[in-house]
Design brief:
This protein is mainly beta. The longest helix has 25 residues. The termini are far apart. This is DUF2911 domain-containing protein. Pfam families: DUF2911.
Protein backbone atom coordinates (compact mmCIF):
# COMPACT_ATOMS: atom_id res chain seq x y z
CA UNK A 1 0.00 0.00 0.00
CA UNK A 2 2.82 2.38 0.92
CA UNK A 3 4.67 1.58 -2.33
CA UNK A 4 1.51 2.19 -4.34
CA UNK A 5 1.00 5.59 -2.67
CA UNK A 6 4.61 6.56 -3.36
CA UNK A 7 4.28 5.52 -6.98
CA UNK A 8 1.08 7.55 -7.39
CA UNK A 9 2.76 10.54 -5.74
CA UNK A 10 5.73 10.23 -8.08
CA UNK A 11 3.51 9.98 -11.17
CA UNK A 12 1.43 12.98 -10.09
CA UNK A 13 4.60 14.97 -9.36
CA UNK A 14 6.01 14.17 -12.79
CA UNK A 15 2.74 15.14 -14.49
CA UNK A 16 2.73 18.46 -12.64
CA UNK A 17 6.32 19.11 -13.70
CA UNK A 18 5.53 18.42 -17.38
CA UNK A 19 2.39 20.57 -17.33
CA UNK A 20 4.16 23.49 -15.63
CA UNK A 21 7.07 23.24 -18.08
CA UNK A 22 4.65 23.34 -21.02
CA UNK A 23 2.86 26.35 -19.55
CA UNK A 24 6.10 28.23 -18.91
CA UNK A 25 7.38 27.43 -22.39
CA UNK A 26 4.35 29.19 -23.87
CA UNK A 27 5.63 32.44 -22.37
CA UNK A 28 9.14 32.02 -23.84
CA UNK A 29 8.91 34.05 -27.04
CA UNK A 30 12.50 33.20 -28.00
CA UNK A 31 11.50 29.58 -28.60
CA UNK A 32 8.87 30.51 -31.19
CA UNK A 33 9.55 29.57 -34.83
CA UNK A 34 9.40 33.32 -35.65
CA UNK A 35 11.61 34.56 -32.83
CA UNK A 36 11.48 38.15 -31.57
CA UNK A 37 14.13 40.53 -32.89
CA UNK A 38 15.07 44.16 -32.28
CA UNK A 39 16.61 46.65 -34.67
CA UNK A 40 17.80 49.91 -33.17
CA UNK A 41 19.91 52.84 -34.24
CA UNK A 42 20.27 56.58 -34.53
CA UNK A 43 18.67 58.63 -37.28
CA UNK A 44 19.95 62.14 -36.70
CA UNK A 45 19.29 62.86 -33.02
CA UNK A 46 16.48 60.30 -32.73
CA UNK A 47 16.89 56.76 -31.47
CA UNK A 48 14.65 54.45 -33.49
CA UNK A 49 13.80 50.95 -32.27
CA UNK A 50 11.78 48.33 -34.16
CA UNK A 51 10.60 45.22 -32.30
CA UNK A 52 9.28 42.45 -34.52
CA UNK A 53 9.02 38.70 -34.90
CA UNK A 54 11.13 37.27 -37.71
CA UNK A 55 9.52 34.56 -39.87
CA UNK A 56 11.51 32.48 -42.38
CA UNK A 57 10.97 31.95 -46.09
CA UNK A 58 11.12 28.12 -45.79
CA UNK A 59 10.88 27.70 -49.58
CA UNK A 60 7.64 29.70 -49.83
CA UNK A 61 6.81 32.54 -52.22
CA UNK A 62 6.56 35.51 -49.87
CA UNK A 63 5.35 38.78 -51.42
CA UNK A 64 2.27 38.44 -53.57
CA UNK A 65 1.45 35.02 -52.04
CA UNK A 66 2.11 34.34 -48.33
CA UNK A 67 1.99 38.11 -47.81
CA UNK A 68 -0.59 39.25 -50.39
CA UNK A 69 -0.16 42.44 -52.38
CA UNK A 70 -2.50 45.34 -51.56
CA UNK A 71 -3.53 43.91 -48.18
CA UNK A 72 -2.44 45.26 -44.78
CA UNK A 73 0.19 43.07 -43.11
CA UNK A 74 1.51 43.22 -39.54
CA UNK A 75 5.06 43.69 -40.91
CA UNK A 76 6.36 40.60 -39.13
CA UNK A 77 4.89 37.60 -37.34
CA UNK A 78 3.02 37.06 -34.06
CA UNK A 79 2.28 40.40 -32.34
CA UNK A 80 2.09 43.56 -34.42
CA UNK A 81 5.53 45.09 -35.13
CA UNK A 82 6.41 47.99 -32.81
CA UNK A 83 8.16 51.15 -34.04
CA UNK A 84 9.45 53.56 -31.39
CA UNK A 85 11.20 56.92 -31.66
CA UNK A 86 12.37 59.08 -28.77
CA UNK A 87 12.23 62.30 -30.84
CA UNK A 88 9.86 63.81 -33.40
CA UNK A 89 10.94 62.70 -36.89
CA UNK A 90 10.04 63.09 -40.54
CA UNK A 91 9.17 59.78 -42.26
CA UNK A 92 9.23 60.03 -46.05
CA UNK A 93 8.75 63.80 -45.59
CA UNK A 94 5.78 63.52 -43.17
CA UNK A 95 5.86 64.37 -39.45
CA UNK A 96 5.70 61.63 -36.80
CA UNK A 97 5.69 62.58 -33.12
CA UNK A 98 7.98 60.84 -30.66
CA UNK A 99 6.28 57.73 -29.28
CA UNK A 100 5.50 54.07 -29.73
CA UNK A 101 3.44 52.82 -32.67
CA UNK A 102 2.37 49.57 -34.26
CA UNK A 103 3.92 49.42 -37.71
CA UNK A 104 1.92 47.83 -40.51
CA UNK A 105 2.78 47.52 -44.19
CA UNK A 106 0.73 47.11 -47.34
CA UNK A 107 3.07 45.56 -49.90
CA UNK A 108 2.47 46.20 -53.56
CA UNK A 109 4.33 45.09 -56.68
CA UNK A 110 5.73 48.59 -57.29
CA UNK A 111 4.93 50.56 -54.13
CA UNK A 112 4.44 49.82 -50.43
CA UNK A 113 2.52 51.74 -47.79
CA UNK A 114 3.75 51.84 -44.20
CA UNK A 115 1.14 52.65 -41.57
CA UNK A 116 1.97 53.92 -38.09
CA UNK A 117 -0.88 53.15 -35.67
CA UNK A 118 -1.25 54.43 -32.10
CA UNK A 119 -2.57 51.12 -30.69
CA UNK A 120 0.21 48.81 -29.47
CA UNK A 121 0.44 45.42 -27.79
CA UNK A 122 -2.16 43.60 -29.89
CA UNK A 123 -1.75 40.30 -31.68
CA UNK A 124 -1.01 40.98 -35.35
CA UNK A 125 -3.97 39.23 -36.96
CA UNK A 126 -7.54 38.18 -36.21
CA UNK A 127 -8.83 34.60 -36.49
CA UNK A 128 -9.87 35.08 -40.13
CA UNK A 129 -6.35 36.18 -41.10
CA UNK A 130 -7.04 39.90 -41.46
CA UNK A 131 -4.83 42.33 -39.60
CA UNK A 132 -5.89 43.52 -36.15
CA UNK A 133 -5.18 47.16 -37.14
CA UNK A 134 -7.87 49.63 -36.13
CA UNK A 135 -7.93 52.21 -38.95
CA UNK A 136 -9.35 54.84 -36.59
CA UNK A 137 -6.00 54.78 -34.74
CA UNK A 138 -3.81 55.29 -37.81
CA UNK A 139 -1.48 58.23 -37.22
CA UNK A 140 0.58 58.31 -40.41
CA UNK A 141 0.78 56.50 -43.75
CA UNK A 142 3.80 56.83 -46.06
CA UNK A 143 4.79 55.29 -49.39
CA UNK A 144 8.10 53.64 -50.27
CA UNK A 145 9.50 51.79 -53.29
CA UNK A 146 10.55 48.14 -53.00
CA UNK A 147 13.65 46.85 -54.73
CA UNK A 148 15.56 43.63 -55.19
CA UNK A 149 17.92 42.91 -52.30
CA UNK A 150 21.60 42.22 -52.94
CA UNK A 151 21.18 38.75 -51.48
CA UNK A 152 18.42 36.39 -50.43
CA UNK A 153 17.29 36.88 -46.81
CA UNK A 154 15.85 33.69 -45.32
CA UNK A 155 14.61 35.51 -42.23
CA UNK A 156 12.72 38.80 -42.16
CA UNK A 157 14.92 41.58 -40.84
CA UNK A 158 14.79 45.28 -40.17
CA UNK A 159 17.83 47.52 -40.10
CA UNK A 160 17.88 51.06 -38.74
CA UNK A 161 20.37 53.18 -40.69
CA UNK A 162 21.48 56.82 -40.54
CA UNK A 163 18.91 57.63 -43.23
CA UNK A 164 15.92 55.59 -41.97
CA UNK A 165 15.09 51.90 -41.87
CA UNK A 166 15.09 49.02 -44.33
CA UNK A 167 12.94 45.90 -44.25
CA UNK A 168 14.48 42.87 -45.99
CA UNK A 169 12.96 39.47 -46.63
CA UNK A 170 13.39 36.92 -49.37
CA UNK A 171 14.72 38.85 -52.39
CA UNK A 172 12.98 42.12 -51.51
CA UNK A 173 14.08 45.16 -49.57
CA UNK A 174 12.20 48.38 -48.91
CA UNK A 175 14.03 51.45 -47.60
CA UNK A 176 12.03 54.07 -45.70
CA UNK A 177 13.59 57.54 -45.35
CA UNK A 178 13.66 59.26 -41.96
CA UNK A 179 15.06 62.68 -41.05
Amino acid sequence: MKKEMMLKGFVIGMMCMFVSTAILAQGDKASRPSAPQTATGKVGEATVTINYSSPSVKGRKIFGDLVPFDKVWRAGANEATIFETDKDIMVEGKALKAGKYSLYAMPGATEWSFIFNSETGQWGIKRGGDTSKDAAKDVLTVKAKPGKSASMNEKLMYEVTASGFVIRWDNTEVPVAIK
